[in-house]
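Section 5: illustrative case.
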């Protein structure tokens, strides 16, 4: 038996474990986010205890500098992270897929112009573009942060869509569909989108994690969800002054951010292995 044959079951098992770990981590945050819609331990704005109390039976993660329950703040942070991730990815998908398809069908000079513009936008950090969009709006709030992140992420989606769509357009079945009299909208709906969607879905999962981290960075800088919204970034910003006396206030949101980002990346890797037949064969 060859070494490649022996290692194949081990690789398959490791991919399955990674996918399961991603589902568990992301599922935990989704469950907590949904739970906040019906139940919270304390009112998020109430001073439920003393200032900077340690963990106890009443306050599992202690309290912050204003006496608010930190576990309640963390639960709300999960909900905000999910809203930001889903909203930013949805906006980025709509804008990016539309622009990518237009570039794929455009004439050569227009395609080159769009491709160059997308490359320039991608060269700028996502957080910087989001900061510029938020700063250009009248007020910094959660929805402006979501729109800003969606616009920032759309360039990456558009570039990937353009590349994938161009690969599909040269296939023989596209030529056959055009010969049979199918319109371009019908070809896009029946042939192009179903073929590029698996790869795009993996990219959307990665964009989700990027959006969550970017929103936390915006909130840390004061450009994200304003108080009393308990974004993980804002919790980190408020805890930086008491990190030595009450380190849990900074450790807890940091762990939450890392766990969600890792979970989303593991989930994306698992989806890629499940979708790509060549990776399954290897």
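Designed sequence:
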């Amino acid at each position: 038996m060859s070494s490649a044959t022996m290692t194949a079951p081990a690789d398959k098992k490791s991919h399955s474990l990674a996918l399961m770990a991603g589902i568990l981590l992301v599922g935990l945050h989704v469950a907590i986010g949904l739970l906040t819609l019906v139940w919270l331990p304390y009112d998020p704005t109430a001073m439920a205890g003393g200032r900077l109390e340690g963990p106890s039976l009443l306050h599992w993660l202690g309290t912050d500098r204003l006496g608010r329950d930190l576990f309640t703040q963390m639960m709300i942070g999960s909900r905000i992270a999910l809203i930001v991730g889903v909203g930013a990815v949805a906006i980025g998908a709509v804008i990016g897929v539309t622009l990518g398809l237009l570039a794929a069908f455009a004439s050569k000079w227009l395609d080159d112009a769009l491709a160059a513009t997308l490359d320039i936008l991608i060269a700028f950090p996502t957080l910087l573009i989001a900061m510029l969009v938020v700063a250009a709006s009248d007020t910094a709030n959660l929805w402006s942060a979501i729109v800003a992140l969606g616009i920032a992420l759309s360039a990456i989606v558009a570039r990937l869509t353009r590349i994938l769509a161009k690969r599909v357009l040269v296939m023989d079945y596209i030529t056959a569909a055009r010969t049979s009299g199918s319109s371009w909208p019908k070809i896009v709906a029946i042939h192009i989108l179903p073929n590029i969607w698996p790869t795009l879905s993996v990219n959307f999962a990665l964009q989700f994690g990027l959006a969550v981290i970017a929103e936390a960075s915006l909130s840390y800088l004061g450009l994200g969800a304003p108080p009393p919204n308990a974004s993980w970034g804002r919790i980190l910003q408020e805890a930086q002054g008491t990190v030595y006396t009450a380190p849990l206030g900074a450790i807890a949101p940091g762990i939450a951010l890392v766990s969600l980002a890792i979970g989303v990346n593991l989930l994306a890797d698992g989806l890629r292995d499940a979708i790509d037949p060549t990776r399954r064969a290897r």
